[in-house]
Amino acid sequence: MTTIFVRLIIPIAAILLLVFALVDAIRVPDDSMYRAGNKLIWVLVIVLLPFFVGPLIYLFVGAPTTERRPRRRWGNQIPPDDLI
User: Fold this and answer.
1) What is the rounded CA–CA span in Å between residue 46 and residue 18?
2) What digits encode the pLDDT tens for the residues 31-56?
3) 42 near 62, Cβ under 8 Å?
4) What are the two backbone dihedrals, phi and then psi, of residue 12, each rounded to the nearest 5 degrees?
5) CA–CA separation, 70 and 49 (whole Å)
6) How far apart (Å, rounded) are the C-alpha atoms in residues 61 and 66?
């Protein structure tokens, strides 16, 4: 079981993480959205650093933060007139 884990599961997880990070870095529309650096730097970091290192550095240091909008909950509030 340990041999299967080391020889199969870990490399597949590394490839999936690399693909996820690379697609995420390429899909960012504007270089100013990155927390640091630009698209070229992050693609090179992801591709050139070995194994899990490049994608993890990108995800923790460079990946843009997503803005979370608060959900609208009307609850006990009366909706505005233009929605009626």
Assistant:
1) 7
2) 888 888 899 999 999 999 988 999 99
3) yes
4) -65, -40
5) 37
6) 14
User: Which residue has tokens 């490049």?
Assistant: 54
Burial 10-27 (b: 16+ CB within 10 A, else e): eeeeeeebbeebbebbee
CB contact at 8 A, 42 and 33: no
> Interior CA angle at 39 toward 58 and 34, to 5°?
60
d(CA 52, CA 25): 15
Residue of 48 and 7 predicted with greater confidence: 48
Quote the CA–CA distance of 74 and 55 in Å, as a whole number: 41
